[in-house]
Amino acid sequence: MRVLARVGVGPLCSAARAVIPCFWRGKYFSSGREPAENQVTPMLRHLVYKIKATGPITVAEYMKEVLTNPAKGYYVYRDMLGEKGDFITSPEISQIFGELLGIWFISEWMATGKNAAFQLVELGPGRGTLSGDILRVFSQLGSVLKNCDISIHLVEVSEKLSEIQALTLTEEKVPLERNPGSPAYMKGVTKSGIPISWYRHLQDVPKGYSFYLAHEFFDVLPVHKFQKTPQGWREVFIDVDPQASDKLRFVLAPCVTPAEVFIQSDETRDHVEVCPEAGVIIQELSQRIALTGGAALIADYGHDGTKTDTFRGFCGHKLHDVLIAPGTADLTADVDFSYLRRMAEGKVASLGPIKQQTFLKNMGIDVRLKVLADKSDEPSRQQLLQGYDMLMNPKKMGERFHFFALLPHQRLHGGSHPMNACQSKPSPSPVAGFGELAWR
Ligand SMILES: C[S@@+](CC[C@H](N)C(=O)[O-])C[C@H]1O[C@@H](n2cnc3c(N)ncnc32)[C@H](O)[C@@H]1O
């Protein structure tokens, strides 16, 4: 991989990454096992009032309120990532993670004919660390990307995190342009001089040849939960506990609810979680990619339509009962990649899900680790090795996290480049990461 060999000379990023032990959210436990303090939070008061006024709410509505309510939502006004927060993510663990993803996008850009311009669109960018590592790769490979007109587009609902992203990514000397009423609510210029904009919804991002990235984004989108009963599927709701008016409890709907249409007719599990919002986003991504080209890379913990109850909470690197002290803990559910694949079907091709360990190995993580470790002092070397172990170890994040890609059909089956005289059909190059690393 020529691109990888060139980025191999790049520096060790000076920003210190979180050191173990931190808790990553892919760790699976069923919800509500850990005891937690029963605190009456402003969010709990809001939910109790709402339920008393209009009746029990779906788990999806509960997740949406708790995580992204514009006034009190967990994601809206806090930095929950890293050692001092509630959980840790791969880009916060090792710079190598983002660098390899940067190479993936360049590799796809090259394989599809080196378009004169592209947008990099990240959904749920956290602290901006991942985009920062990708941008550093773009700068190091400036000679490959020269004359390509790049712009960065971040889809973020959190006011607090968008401020942190701006600090991480933008050039201080160029003032940010703020326009809360406009679809692009903030605009600036990155440290490497690339235009960058923030949006609340994917639909607001301009259409055009784009690479989309979603890392630990789909798992925070609201899920509906269903239980199979002798009477058929019944949706799980959240109600106020009749024994204690400041406590919440799960209840089953007495009859069929509209979200039941999302359950497959041949479903064999006795409990399922469905995320219609993920379906809408995948359909939007698929339409965009089919129309204007590019690709989407989605990385998250999840399953292929096999798991049942995965709804759980995290607070201070510990499991947290999802119904206790809402608004103080993160809520998450494993991503059902089989559902994402179904939502993309017919419009674009999909690859994966494949294990993080396999994807990063195929992308050349061992080579990059060696290059960085060889020129690091002992403490940094140890940190790099610990980070590698966390990302790759099958018992840690290596097998729990998966990569999944959406690509135009012609990318996999040929037809995107002009044919040469001797070929009846151009043969497409393999998609990096989803097959074994090939050295050229
Ligand atoms: C679990 S964090 C992951 C952060 C980052 N991708 C990482 O891996 O470090 C989820 C991110 O998605 C954002 N987010 C949550 N719900 C969102 C929504 N409905 N639309 C846009 N962003 C959302 C959060 O504010 C946060 O930036």
From TrEMBL:
- The name this protein goes by in its record: Protein arginine methyltransferase NDUFAF7
Q: Which GO terms describe its biological process?
A: methylation; mitochondrial respiratory chain complex I assembly
Any GO CC annotation of this UniProt entry: mitochondrion
Q: What does this protein do?
A: Arginine methyltransferase involved in the assembly or stability of mitochondrial NADH:ubiquinone oxidoreductase complex (complex I). Acts by mediating symmetric dimethylation of 'Arg-118' of NDUFS2 after it assembles into the complex I, stabilizing the early intermediate complex.
Q: Which reaction does it catalyse?
A: L-arginyl-[protein] + 2 S-adenosyl-L-methionine = N(omega),N(omega)'-dimethyl-L-arginyl-[protein] + 2 S-adenosyl-L-homocysteine + 2 H(+)
The main location is: mitochondrion
Keywords attached to this entry: Acetylation, Methyltransferase, Mitochondrion, Transferase, Transit peptide
- Enzyme Commission number(s) from the entry: 2.1.1.320
Q: What Pfam families does the database record attribute to this sequence?
A: Methyltransf_28 (PF02636)
Main EC class the enzyme belongs to: transferase
The entry's family comment says: Belongs to the NDUFAF7 family.
Per its UniProt record, what InterPro entries does this chain match? Answer: NDUFAF7, NDUFAF7_sf, SAM-dependent_MTases_sf
Q: How does it assemble?
A: Interacts with NDUFS2.
GO MF annotation, one = protein-arginine omega-N symmetric methyltransferase activity
**Cellular localisation:** Mitochondrion
